[in-house]
Amino acid sequence: MALSFIFDSTQLGQAGLAVTAFAAVLTLMQDNARTRRIVRNERRRREDDDELSKRR
Predict the structure, then answer these.
(1) Mind listing the pLDDT tens digit for each residue in 2-38?
(2) Which long-range contacts (CB under 8 A, 24 or more apart) does 23-31 make?
(3) What is each CA distance from 13 to 1, 8, 18, 24, 27, in whole angstroms?
(4) What pLDDT does residue 6 have?
């Protein structure tokens, strides 16, 4: 009886670790996408500013 409880709790612990690792990977992917979007928007703004300054 005690052995099956230990085994079940070990499986739950492993499942919890897997879920935590998955959540961490998703968070990193979101952060990466957000950073790329910010960099892209900043680059576009800079290019637009350059074009405007050339027209003057």
Answers:
(1) 566 666 777 778 888 889 999 999 999 999 999 999 9
(2) none
(3) 18, 9, 9, 16, 21
(4) 60
Q: How far apart are CA 6 and CA 21, in angstroms?
A: 22
Here the tokens at position 26 are 């998703």
pTM of the predicted structure, to 2 decimals: 0.59
The DSSP string of 1-56 is -HHHHHHHHHHHHHHHHHHHHHHHHHHHHHHHHHHHHHHHHHHHHHHHHHHHHHH-
